[in-house]
Amino acid sequence: xxxxxxxxxxxxxxxxxxxxxxxxxxxxxxxxxxxxxxxxxxxxxxxxxxxxxxxxxxxxxxxxxxxxxxxxxxxxxxxxxxxxxxxxxxxxxxxxxxxxxxxxxxxxxxxxxxxxxxxxxxxxxxxxxxxxxxxxxxxxxxxxxxxxxxxxxxxxxxxxxxxxxxxxxxxxxxxxxxxxxxxxxxxxxxxxxxxxxxxxxxxxxxxxxxxxxxxxxxxxxxxxxxxxxxxxxxxxxxxxxxxxxxxxxxxxxxxxxxxxxxxxxxxxxxxxxx
Length: 274
Fold this sequence. Notes:
Blueprint: E1 10-12, E2 23-25, E3 41-45, E4 48-56, E5 59-62, E6 74-76, H1 81-93, H2 116-124, H3 136-144, H4 152-159, E7 177-179, E8 185-187, E9 207-209, E10 215-217, E11 234-235, E12 239-243, E13 248-251, E14 256-257, E15 263-267, E16 270-273
Parallel strand pairs: 11-14, 12-15, 13-16
Antiparallel strand pairs: 1-6, 2-5, 3-4, 3-6, 4-5, 7-8, 9-10
């Protein structure tokens, strides 16, 4: 995008043009500069300097002319004020060496083959100080700085745990019931007494604990009286107790038989006096 020059460029109009024309045709375009999409040059039509923005074949596109020009009028690229002024402005805008470019720069093309817009969008998504050449050790250090990272310390701890193990340690107990670290429970000798038994009734020296967990007094039995002797330990009246073979009888303590009283025991059963 710049003003263009060439040496010894000259021709004539192949047809006349009216004032305000934005293009004209010449006999030959040989010697005139090649203009890019944003380039321009200045052409002298007889005594008028016209800004030409495109040359295609023998057709020149220009800024509207101020006057009309006849066929065969001279068309030349001369050193004009307009050329020199534009060239000077180009030098001031972007010095060949040194200096600084100010203001926004836009382009519809690329810079050194790079699409600045595309590259800029990519750069916008990259964090500050990001890098693509981190080593494994550097990445590991950054990762382990996270609070929930799986670190070497955790890996060592995990390696020391047996497969399917849990984190429970059975406590040891002491007292009437003791336990070992494997959870085995042992009742100490003498640890269980009558007070610890959950039974119905009141314990006593002449009672026994039945299978249904009830304290029961020990007594004999007679056929006539059913399941118990009548006052078996103090016999004050004449009585006969008939033992039944299907029953065992037990009397506890001393047996007292009053004077003149007869106590008769018969039958095929068994009676124990303790």
